[in-house]
Design goal:
Helix content: 25-40%
Strand order of the largest sheet: 12-13-11-15-14
Number of domains: 4
Length: 541
């Protein structure tokens, strides 16, 4: 059977963060496992197989088993992007009081800030066509590496032997100055693991104090021997799948079947200096949207602004973005909606929408989607990345912002857990949606009249037409007396603090039905660029 080129994975971090602590260290030590260890990479591929490829619970299929054993038989080589080691500090409550005050403990959250680029990991081993196809499928399903917020985009690519930034010690001559050693956890090759297991198991059974030559053992002796046998995973694949609780219960200080390897890594692979000031880049590929995560300084989710404050929060953030765009060297058309002479763009509603979202459905705003149909250019991207904080009325301090992702709307809807599910509802199903319902109230942009183009239906139709969407088949107003969402909508702030107020300060929760399927996002009416008049696909639940 023919062989393929050496397998190489390309991994990107759309959230610009990689969270992982080296084995044997506590998170509060502030250490970062960079590059990701061979042990971590193989465990991530196995987890992806069970979660995305529907492997049976009793173990990987034979082709996948062969692939993992081949990858474990060699130590990989890496090419690394620029990264900066950084951290945040949180005082976490301990749910107990002392001297009338709630006790807290200081927790460090450390990560590698990977602003751009990608890292490549190459295994110098031959795999066949079927194994290569299996690895490509696993790479396509790999959604995070390390902690779950370390989102990834991975792909199997042609091997590239240029510019290795991390490789095993002893594989080459000692490097020149500017390199350092780091210890990474790697698996034993499968035959070596089998040999080690046999000898270790025999030694443990001999040291048990039980006469192994007896023909029959008591129930207590059999239980003790069975416990010894189960403390050594049956093969390398089983060893790669043990969890931390199991290790702690049996007293393992390091996973069975693993070894510490020293790697040479470029000394500047993980900078520890303060973040460099953000500057506008000369050119960057436009992106359709960027997603920001919001957090309080204390990490208390319930101290985040309520969803009813989506409009004022977007106003505050918009002012910060415009200011940072000016500091970075100029005027951002995509963020301001005006040309370089300050005149509004002819193509309406193509510039940025700042949509505050409650992705975990707890009633508090936790993310901001910055979406521009015209695309966010280098100037806008630089301003978004430079905006590290925003404020809220009545808050005890600024809210912290972190870039969680950038790219296409379809790409963000593929994020894990409820985050991706909520974003997918704003986009609609892959083929589009027929029925859409208000997420935030629709505020009429003109004075309401009973009939004609200034009626509620007329204004909704005009707003949809201005965005190139078809006329609605039906527009239904939900009654606050019968609908909980409509009752809550009365508490939304609907008027801007700066800028013209709405002609009529009233908001409606609507259901819109189309004759043909429509793709989102749909944001219409007064304040639509600041989060009002947002709709979600009812059929994408």
């Amino acid at each position: 059977m023919g062989s393929e080129a050496m397998p190489t994975l390309r991994i990107r971090f759309p959230g610009r963060r990689y969270h992982a602590t080296p084995w044997g260290h506590h998170v509060n030590e502030g250490l970062i496992e960079w590059p990701p260890s061979p042990w971590r990479l193989l465990r991530a591929l196995l987890a992806t197989g069970y979660a995305k490829c529907h492997w049976p619970s009793d173990g990987p299929p034979e082709m996948a088993r062969s692939l993992i054993e081949k990858l474990a038989s060699v130590v990989p080589i890496y090419r690394l992007p620029e990264a900066v080691g950084t951290h945040s500090r949180h005082y976490m409550p301990l749910a107990r009081f002392k001297n009338g005050q709630e006790e807290t403990t200081l927790v460090f959250d450390t990560w590698a800030q990977v602003d751009s680029g990608e890292f490549l990991v190459r295994w110098d081993v031959e795999i066949n066509h079927q194994e290569r196809a299996e690895l490509a499928r696993l790479a396509d399903g790999l959604s995070y590496l390390g902690r779950s917020e370390s989102w990834t985009e991975a792909a199997l690519v042609d091997d590239d032997r240029s510019g290795d930034d991390a490789y095993p010690c002893g594989a080459r001559d000692l490097p020149r100055p500017g390199w350092e050693q780091v210890a990474l956890l790697a698996p034993l090759p499968a035959p070596e693991y089998a040999s080690w297991r046999d000898s270790s198991l025999a030694q443990a059974r001999n040291e048990s104090g039980i006469d192994l030559a007896k023909n029959k053992h008591t129930a207590g002796e059999r239980k003790k021997l069975d416990g010894i046998d189960s403390s050594f995973p049956s093969d390398l694949l089983a060893a790669l799948q043990v969890d931390t609780v199991w290790l702690h219960q049996l007293g393992w200080s390091q996973p069975p079947g693993s070894r510490k390897l020293l790697y040479w890594r470029r000394s500047d692979s993980l900078e520890s200096a303060a973040p460099r000031p953000s500057r506008a880049v000369a050119y960057a590929e436009p992106v359709e949207c960027m997603l920001l995560a919001i957090a309080t300084q204390s990490g208390n989710l319930h101290a985040l602004p309520r969803i009813e404050r989506a409009l004022p929060q977007s106003e505050l953030l918009h002012r910060s973005l415009i200011a940072n765009a000016s500091r970075a060297g100029g005027h951002s058309i995509a963020l301001s909606g005006c040309d370089n002479d300050g005149k509004p763009l002819r193509l309406s509603h193509q510039h940025a929408h700042l949509i505050h979202l409650d992705l975990d459905a707890d009633g508090h705003l936790d993310h901001v989607l910055i979406w521009a149909p015209m695309g966010l250019d280098a100037q806008a991207q630089s301003a978004v990345r430079a905006t590290r904080k925003t404020y809220t009325k009545g808050g005890t301090g600024p809210l912290r912002l972190a870039l969680a992702g950038a790219g296409s709307l379809a790409g963000l809807s593929g994020l894990p857990n409820e985050f991706g599910a909520t974003l997918a509802r704003l986009l609609g199903s892959p083929t589009g949606g027929l029925r859409w319902r208000s997420v935030t109230p629709f505020v009429p942009p003109r004075h309401l009249k009973k009939i004609g183009r200034h009626s509620l239906v007329g204004q909704v139709t005009a707003e949809l037409t201005a965005r190139g969407l078809p006329e609605p088949l039906q527009v239904r107003v939900l009654d606050p007396r019968d609908d909980e969402a409509a009752r809550r909508a009365r508490h939304f702030q609907r008027s801007r603090s700066r800028g013209a107020p709405p002609p009529q300060d009233c908001g409606f929760v609507l259901e819109i039905k189309f004759a043909t399927q429509v793709q989102g996002p749909i944001a219409i009416g007064y304040g639509c660029h600041l989060g009002m008049g947002l709709f979600a696909d009812l059929e994408h639940e």
